[in-house]
Write a structure and sequence with these properties.
It comes from Devosia riboflavina. The protein is of the alpha+beta class and about 260 residues long. It folds into 2 domains: about 100 residues, no CATH class; about 140 residues, no CATH class. About 25% of the residues lie in helices and about 30% in strands. Strands 7, 8, 11, 15 and 18 form a 5-stranded antiparallel beta sheet that branches. A 3-stranded antiparallel beta sheet has the order 12-13-14, with no helix packed on it. A hairpin with a 2-residue loop joins strand 16 and strand 17. Helix 1 packs antiparallel against helix 2.
Length: about 260
Amino acid sequence: MKALYIASTGMSAQERNVEVISNNIANMRTPGFKRQRAEFEDLLYQQISRAGSQTSDQGTLVPAGLEIGSGVRTVATPRVMSQGSVNPTERELDVAVRGEGFFMVDLPDGRTAYTRDGSFERNQDGTLVNSSGYEISGGITIPGDATGVSISPDGTVEAFVGTGGDAVQLGQLQVARFVNKSGLESMGDNLFLETGASGPAQIGLPNADGNGSLLQNYLEMANVNSVTEIADLIAAQRAYEMNARVISGADQMMQATSQLR
């Protein structure tokens, strides 16, 4: 009975949906995290009677065909790249992007990764790095005797070094934009990689040419809404239960048929 297999695809799809929702909820407090959503599409159809086919020599046509679907599948889990809430942290190396743009991170293998997580640190050499120790693009090094580090909305990094009275410019943070942000590949560690679907990175200065501005002493939090996720979770659970009932009903029908024999 095809209903068994069709309902099983529905259960499999809703199981994947719950996995996506659970990952969103697990990362509610992850800086720069972007929630995902599961997208579905129906499978192939068995055409028993095609709409518009001729039924007589007089040219009469079938007004509505007879076709049976094969179920559903999960086709994509795109990320929702909306702005998350920006919260104060009182740390001078915490930076949030307000608007469009990703920070750029130099990976050890030579690739460039992209992130919305601006919780930066200094390594043993004073170089600006992310929480995993990867260098922030631009090679910004903060001397050990630097005080009053400031990061302006346009990405200029300055500090007072030594006994000098004027602030010294230490470097410039840049941001990258993409035509299709949802096409970025997630690699964990709050990092994304460029793909053919995302398009090439468009690198520029913050607060210019449509790029977002930077906010020092702030972090962008996850754009996960707990109420929405719980509502989606309940809906997924109910859909899973209904597909399970279809399997149970189909089994009862098959049992009744076997008893007739």
